[in-house]
Amino acid sequence: MAYEFIQVRTEGERVGVITLNRPKQLNALSPALMVELGQALKAFEADEAIGCIVLTGSEKAFAAGADIGAMATYTFADVYGDDYITRDWETIRSIRKPVIAAVSGFALGGGCELAMMCDFIIAADNARFGQPEIKLGIIPGAGGTQRLPRAVGKSKAMDLALTGRMMNADEAERAGLVSRVVPLDKLMDEALAAALTISGMGRLAVMAAKECVNRAFEGPLADGVMFERRLFHALFATEDQKEGMDAFVAKRAPQFKHR
Ligand code: CAA
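# acetoacetyl-coenzyme A complex -> structure
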């Protein structure tokens, strides 16, 4: 499929890569871009060969937020009634394969929110994260006020949301927003290596692990523990569990099914 605002490729057959591509606007997330992103994610989700997806931007910007030019004239009826801005943002949450955000440069506003919707974030040392919406007279609208405090705690989330300041990659790693920080020129190597590792694991176990960690992030502890237990039990019905444990006992590498 031909896309205008993103680029799509596969890497090593099992990894899907989506690159946001509106360089002149620092990858501002217009409604049209979000539609394309949703289509590309769904296509990789449906492709049996793909085990993990990497979402990235440019060196200068992962994404500088929702498109302010497009939003400037919107009324309450447009954004609430027609849900213009965030209508196509939910697709990524329905993707069951892991999505890694490889972030360099600005990840601001909706860009930070999009990165947080991914399963984990690997940051280049030039990455800068923030929720500057307050400076535009609005608040984050794609989950920022909810996911940021869960990721970095109330104090830092309040600081970022109320002052609109940016935090650099080191601060983001210390705060727990990103899983690793790497030199800019190593960002894609690191993200692709992680994606390749994940895509080599048993597909059902990967899906179950993602579901369980999201449950911890989104719901109460008791529910999450019970949910995890049920899926843990269920994985004993898979061939990958037999293979993984047999291989360990036999001191050989496992041959997972990848489906
Ligand atoms: N929307 C539309 N265009 C944007 C944009 C955005 N979010 N961010 C940057 N651009 C455009 C600029 O208008 C500029 O275009 P022109 O060359 O045509 O003038 C181009 O990208 C380059 O930007 P700058 O010249 O500003 O670059 P800079 O290096 O001086 O500054 C920046 C970079 C600090 C990221 C600055 O561009 C900036 O502050 N951008 C806005 C960030 C922001 O407020 N994001 C939140 C948006 S609201 C939101 O996301 C709502 C939500 O929760 C869903």
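# post-check
The pocket of acetoacetyl-coenzyme A is lined by residues 25-26, 28, 64-69, 85, 106, 108-110, 113, 132-133, 136, 140-142, 144 (CB under 6 Å).
The longest strand covers residues 6-11.
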